[in-house]
Amino acid sequence: MLSGKGGTGKTLVSVNFAAAAEAAVYLDCDVEEPNGHLFFKPEITSEELVSAKIPLIDYDRCNGCRTCVDFCKFNALAFIKNKPVLFKDICHSCGGCVLFCPQKAISEEEKNVGMIQSGTSGQVRVHTGFLNTGEASGIPIIKELLKKSAGETALPIFIDCPPGNACSVMESIKDADYCVLVAEPTVFGVHNLKMVCDLAETFHKPYGVVLNKCLEDENPAEEFCKEHHATILGRIPFDSKLGSISSNARIAVRENDRYRELFSELLHTIIEEANHEAVAHPQR
Amino acid sequence: MKQLLILSGKGGTGKTTVAGALIKLSQARAYADCDVDAPNLHLSMTQTADPERNDYYGMPKAQIDAEACIGCGQCKENCRFDAIINNNGYAVDPFSCEGCGVCEALCPVNAVSMKPAVAGEQMLYRTTYSVFSTAQLKMGSGTSGKLVTEVKKRMLSSLLPETELAVIDGSPGIGCPVIASMSGVSMVLIVAEPSVSGISDMERILHTAEIFHTQTCVCVNKADVNLELTERIERYCEEKQIPFVGIIPYDSQAVAAINNGKTIVELDCPSGRAVRKIYAETMRLLQVQAGGIEA
Amino acid sequence: MKIAIPMNEQSMDTEVCPSFGRAPYFLLYDSVTKEAYYLDNEAVASQGGAGIRAAQVIADHGVKALIAPRCGENAAEVLTKAEVFTYHSIPGTARQNIEAHLNNQLPLLSEFHAGFHGHEKK
After folding, report:
1. Which of A156, A213, B224, B229 has the most CB atoms at less than 10 Å from its CB?
2. What's the fold here for domain C2-102?
């Protein structure tokens, strides 16, 4: 599930789809601000730290040649009083300094960048990624999250992506079979919907649009879909009750048959559409 | 000159809607859209003329000269970002490349070079009355923090004389683009949303703002969606001694206004009336002459 | 003694630049010879770690005192280790700040802000 813009209802939709499917896997790849777990309140079964590699300098072997400092494109190494000094927060873990030190004075150690919390909520397996504040990249965490569902063939896997179209989103959709773009009926929403359409197309992912918070007026997102020949998977009407339930982080599908029907039907459409795409374009 | 930054923590709380309204009410002579991943402010602040455009260059990216390449595969083996693919020849995936330069340094035949890569575009709209600085980051680019700094710099360096107030529409989240937008700001107005997710994200953004000792104030948008949570936010602000400057009801007329390229104060509607009070209170805190439309 | 000040323009009679890491120029002033020259700040082009790079440049040029309105914690670490003292600038021109410093009127900069990490990959 993607959205160009925050606040369109991506998490609401993802969480309710997973609940409607009953038995499913839910991956929260919005590691900067993961919210799915607030809805699921899963029983935690494990917590796994995620780390990135950073250089470890052996100052006895270091002869102050400055090769590492001069190589680092990220300014993570400074040269002070004839010694390299590492700034862990800035390091991108490229491994260059390790490779090019003529004295082989640099090895690597692990730096914790975040964690993955795994648990269950009913029959939904919930995996939530958390990026430590101040860390540069959530990608190592997203990679680990995707591994959690790697062998899964039976259950549907719902990936709640970060908003926008940056690298973390791209990483999140790498293994996806189908992308659901959640759109809101405003010109702001359309502007950003276009961005994620472009993203899905660039990565050759079949996609469809769910129009959320639909009002009776003209819907610029719907118009966009028509002009762009984008598949409209369904419409969720603006519903203050749904908004209210979700604002309290409750899962509508689990509380109310009407919502269960709404999301189940929509999910069914999506699965059909996804299967159709898989058959029509097996090369993807 | 004072700088007012609008932030939200969570996306979709109405940050740009509020920013547009405040710009119109204050008749600010300088404004900027720092949400460079998904800029929206220009959709409400209709501009009459074309902007000055500049390419924005991010990290240089690696490029492999296919003719020089001998296919040894060392680049791919050592790339930590899975950015080198071998599909009948080695090539760099520009979306994954982080510009670290390892492949360039390793290549035994110098077939890899780092080339400047356009990562986005900056736009500056200038009129005799105001300057508006905005930008759009290209898909997949990872340099939003730096571009945010450039957007602000462009606004600040193009200021018209007698500019008293600059309003900056910030980006969602708590990461580097947000931190970059905070530098030199006189006050941060947080537009919060009364939901469990919204409160969680609001707390994270408040914590981030604290680090910079910037004056902060909070308002709640779509307040009537969950009055209990709105109250909880108000109490939280009281406890933390953060000024609570007002609430805005959910208003379908706001959606209509935005979709017609207008701000919510250009028509008479509940959200427009509510934001005027927030404007008055925010300005009072900023101690700026309310030289714009009477609140 | 060499003094460095981040500047927006190459003139001692203009204001000190509000940013350290991304100031376009550094004024380097020798208090003994009274000579002044300007360095282009190469850190400006950095995605991230600009403060670190700028501090490295300052340290490499044998500067003993840096006068700036603010400075990040990473840059501060480089400067401290390199034994460069950082002083809190006063509003005004570079010239006014140098005079104030030579008259021991400037306090040491004691508060450092967190890094901006302008290289965020979301």
Report:
1. A213
2. Nucleotidyltransferase; domain 5 (3.30.420)
